[in-house]
Design a protein that fits this description.
Elements lengths: L7 H29 L3 H22 L3 H19 L30 H18 L11 H26 L13 H12 L3
Length: about 200
């Protein structure tokens, strides 16, 4: 009498080869993502291509507006996380950003980093593109109403976010900001101390 009937080893071999294959594919995929991290402009150009392909698909099919509306809500949620600081100043006891020139400089740290923002957007557009090939998601709806709802939602949330930025004095974008340079300050300290 055998407890393990014949053929059990064959299933184990198949499942181990499948798991080995998925592990290899996921490692290669992660390697490609890691290599793409420093190429910000190329990544966003790639996203623009994905966006354009999705927009063409929706335009030519003349449908799938519910999917596009859901995608718009998701984009808005990601954008708000991208604009928000990692630590909310309303929940902290004291101010986290310097308000006086003598306070310590603390850079703006996003709740959602740029790479994760790009990755989430690209993945969402790819999933939405795949969903446009299934007719069960093509719900007939009057699309101008959805566009109007989304615009109202966008304006109200961005107004609240901008008021939050003004109240706590933070700017989530780094272009146009003054940057700290350590060598310049060190040279000024040496000149002030009288050392040659």
């Amino acid at each position: 009498m055998t407890v393990n009937g014949g053929g059990g080893g064959d299933n184990d071999l198949k499942s181990s080869s499948i798991s080995e294959w998925t592990y290899t594919v996921s490692r290669r995929y992660q390697h490609l993502l890691d290599k793409s991290t420093p190429h910000v402009l190329r990544r966003w150009i790639g996203f623009a291509v994905v966006f354009f392909i999705y927009a063409l698909r929706v335009y030519f099919v003349q449908g799938y507006y519910i999917i596009t509306y859901g995608l718009g809500i998701y984009i808005l949620q990601l954008f708000l996380a991208f604009l928000s600081p990692q630590v909310d100043p309303e929940l902290q006891d004291g101010p986290s950003l310097p308000t006086l020139g003598s306070e310590e400089f603390r850079p703006f740290v996003r709740r959602l980093p740029e790479f994760k923002f790009w990755y989430s957007l690209t993945r969402a557009f790819c999933i939405a593109f795949v969903l446009t090939f299934f007719t069960m998601f093509d719900v007939p709806v009057f699309w101008p109403i959805l566009l109007f709802y989304w615009m109202v939602l966008f304006i109200s949330t961005m107004k609240r976010q901008i008021m939050h930025m003004v109240k706590y004095r933070y700017v989530p974008f780094s272009f146009g900001k003054q940057r700290y340079t350590g060598k310049k300050a060190a040279v000024d300290d040496d000149a002030a101390s009288g050392r040659p």
